[in-house]
């Protein structure tokens, strides 16, 4: 009987075999494994935040989501942050410690309910599968807002007039796609109040100057970038696909919410991200920029760096504070 062969391997995160099996067991340095370990939900408050998981959709088994509820006055209506996890469209889950660590903090400090769907992953489910899941979760929030369905925490505590999209890395790409798609839909009484792409995976087939000159990091290398996008994009697509290359696209007449684009000075992708920012601004869209200095891609997800590097800790505080301020404005 022939043994299966490895056809691709991505830096400790993923091994793909010729029989279609994809193994996402962490094979990198063991001291970093905890960041991808799942955190069980807890309906009681821990450090001011409670969490639970549920299934949404017509059959209640379509999409799983995690909900984070901050401790607050029961009479207080809280904004809702719809979060899309990163991972190059190929890895990570909403219950990973790295997300739990930062989004419990954001829920607590911004006094917002966070909703994070477990998106389908490539290569088993190529794009637009993850975008479809993300948009379906937004439509579920709309159904909650008009009482077509019910979820206790959101239905009683959520302010559906203040729903924000947020996403890390490839999740930032999904934020932009969902915001564009929502522009042509009737979401009332839900109101999409803002969009927050954090270090979105914007690229072109031709390497940008920042990809060539900025330092690679454990959170993003050029090899990871190339392989993830090759597995994630629709079959036969290049990095010039609109999902990964929205820079300069025509958005006249597209009613987008205000954006807060979060970038990191040492991110490999900062050049195309800034091109996106300038294109949005020149196109008359409402967009603000939050820059973190001396740090790289998704720095705030690295708990080890937050604990041991003063600048990473300081910049993470700046990021959370900036996002909370943006949410407070709208």
Automatic annotation (TrEMBL):
Gene3D superfamilies: alpha/beta hydrolase (3.40.50.1820). InterPro entries: AB_hydrolase_3, AB_hydrolase_fold, Carboxylest/Gibb_receptor. GO terms for molecular function: hydrolase activity. Residues 81-300 form the Alpha/beta hydrolase fold-3 domain. It holds the Pfam family Abhydrolase_3. PANTHER family: ARYLACETAMIDE DEACETYLASE (PTHR23024), CELL DEATH ASSOCIATED PROTEIN (PTHR23024:SF135). Belongs to the 'GDXG' lipolytic enzyme family. This is Alpha/beta hydrolase fold-3 domain-containing protein.
């Amino acid at each position: 009987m022939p043994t299966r062969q490895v056809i691709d391997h991505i830096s400790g995160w993923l091994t793909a075999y010729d029989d279609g099996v994809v193994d996402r067991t962490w094979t990198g340095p063991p001291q970093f494994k905890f960041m991808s370990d799942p955190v069980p939900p807890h309906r009681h408050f821990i450090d001011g935040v409670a969490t639970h998981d549920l299934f949404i959709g017509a059959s209640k088994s379509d999409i799983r989501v995690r909900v984070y509820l901050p401790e607050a006055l029961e009479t207080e209506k809280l904004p809702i942050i719809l979060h899309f996890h990163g991972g190059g469209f190929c890895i990570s889950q909403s219950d990973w410690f790295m997300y739990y660590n930062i989004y419990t903090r954001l829920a607590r400090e911004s006094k917002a309910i966070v909703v994070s769907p477990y998106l389908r992953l490539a290569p088993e489910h190529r794009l637009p599968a993850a975008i479809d899941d993300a948009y379906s979760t937004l439509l579920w929030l709309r159904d909650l807002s008009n009482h077509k369905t019910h979820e206790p925490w959101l239905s009683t505590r959520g302010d559906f007039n203040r729903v924000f999209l947020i996403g890390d890395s490839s999740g930032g790409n999904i934020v932009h796609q969902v915001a564009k798609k929502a522009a042509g839909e009737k979401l009332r009484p839900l109101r999409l109040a803002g969009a927050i792409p954090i270090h979105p995976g914007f690229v072109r087939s031709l390497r940008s100057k920042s990809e060539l000159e900025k330092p690679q990091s454990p959170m993003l290398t050029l090899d990871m970038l190339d392989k993830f996008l090759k597995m994630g994009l629709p079959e036969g697509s290049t990095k010039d696909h609109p999902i990964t290359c929205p820079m300069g696209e025509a958005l006249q007449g597209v009613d987008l919410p205000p954006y807060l684009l979060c970038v990191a000075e040492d991110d490999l992708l900062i050049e195309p991200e800034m091109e996106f920012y300038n294109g949005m601004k020149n196109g008359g869209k409402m967009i603000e920029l939050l820059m973190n200095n001396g740090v790289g891609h998704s720095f705030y997800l690295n708990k080890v760096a937050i604990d041991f590097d003063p600048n990473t800790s300081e910049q993470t505080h700046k990021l959370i504070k900036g996002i909370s301020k943006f949410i407070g404005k709208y």
